[in-house]
Each structure stands twice: as structure tokens, then as C-alpha cells.
Amino acid sequence: MLTDIMAIVRETGKLIRNADISKAAIRQKTSKRDLCTACDIEVQTQLFDRLAKLLPEAQFIGEEQAIRPAVTNGWTFIIDPIDGTANFAHDYRYSCISVALVKDGSPVIGVVYNPYLDELFYAEKGCGAYLNGLPIHVSGLPLSDALVAFGTSPYDLEYKRDTFALAEKVFEKSQDIRRTGSAALDLCHVACGRLDGFFELILRPWDYAAGSVILTEAGGVITTMENTELSLVKDSSVCAATPSAHAELLEIYRHYNEG
Hints:
Blueprint: H1 2-17, E1 27-28, E2 35-36, H2 38-54, E3 59-62, E4 75-83, H3 85-89, E5 96-103, E6 106-114, E7 119-124, E8 129-131, E9 134-135, E10 147-150, H4 160-173, E11 176-178, H5 183-191, E12 197-203, H6 205-217, E13 221-223, E14 236-241, H7 243-258
Parallel strand pairs: 3-4, 10-11, 10-12
Antiparallel strand pairs: 1-2, 4-5, 5-6, 6-7, 7-8, 8-9, 12-14, 13-14
């Protein structure tokens, strides 16, 4: 199953890599920061069609769906056809396809593909995490030595003040911080040691469903900012890091809320 999903995702990634941005048919959804392109729709449609043939009994949740089913019993694919659509629309080339396979409400397979670098991150629950066939693991660094990425929750501006206040506090305690525009890739980069932590105050399940499997299998820790389990049925804050840095990020968040 994992091998077949990987092949489908890698093949579909050509749509992103070969896209003509001048013909992307970019449109706004809820705001000027919430974008959808013709390529988003094309990638999602192809993934739905091909994955349905692989697992006909599965239901599908995709970012560009008008109506989304609930994650219940049985198999569910949770898909972000282009995580980092704003990056894609600007030809920034830091975007990915994210596909999670969920069984009875729990993610069991995660596949994240960066078509620009041909980097395929993947994991199956209990089997470790890999990048292009090689095993990956989190760095193990504490926050003081960490490079930490964060998301700005651009679709939910009520979080902007808290986001940037927390980013300043994390910057003071870490080696440096980054804002990249793709949560799914950031989670994978924590998993392989390029980053050591990531946080965002609100994300959708398709942003983190696949990356959560990869990060956990790589030895990382991922929870909400309140240190509870991530939800696949509603939006959630995310704190993901090496075990040491994760505890320190949560402590910064707790002190900030108490302050």
C-alpha cells in the first residue's frame, strides 16, 4: 500500500513541477492570503481518482473539497494537493503534496513530496521514517541550539499578535527562527534534522496529518500547543520538535499565556 501511494504521489507531483505559473488561474477563497489555483484542483482530482482505484472503500478529505466527510471508522485519505499554495503562486518553489492514510481515525501512513527537489518523505506507523529510501531521525538538539520554524496562521488573523509575540520569545531562546510557508514540509524537515522545531497556532488537519506520522516515526514529538493529541476532525494548534525542544517550546507557550 505504501509503495503504491508513493508512486502515485511522485507521479502527480509532475503537475506541480511542470506547471506554468502564468496560467495558474489563481483565485482567492476566504481572503487574499487564502489561495487556490487550477493546479491545486488538478492535483487533488488526480490523487482522488488514482487513490480510489488503489483503495475503493476509502473516503477522502481534501483541502479543495466543498463538502468534507467526517473521519470515522474505516479508511480515509487526508490530502493537501499543494501545501504552500502562496509559495506556488509566486514560484517560490517551497511547496509539496501531502497525503495521509487514516485507519479508524488514526493516521497510519504519511507521504509528503517536494517535487522541486524530488524529495519524498514517508512513513508507516511502527516502521520508521524515510527520505528517498534512507532512514531519517530528528536531531535531538535542545532549544538553545535549535533552528525553529513557525507558521503565521495567515487565514486566521486573530492569531497574528500572539504568533509574533511567541516567535520573538522563541527567537530569544533558540539559535534562530524561520518562516517558510509549508507546514507539511516543515514537519518533515524537523523529522530529518534540518529543523529542530515548528509551531503554529492554528492549522487544518490536511496540513499536519501526513507529517505527524513521519515526524513521530523519526523520533519527534507532535502535539497541540496545550500538549494534547492533535485532532483530525477540527483545526488545531501544532507544536512539533525534538523531545527536548518540544518540552521547552510548550513551556514558553505556557508562560506566555500566564503572563
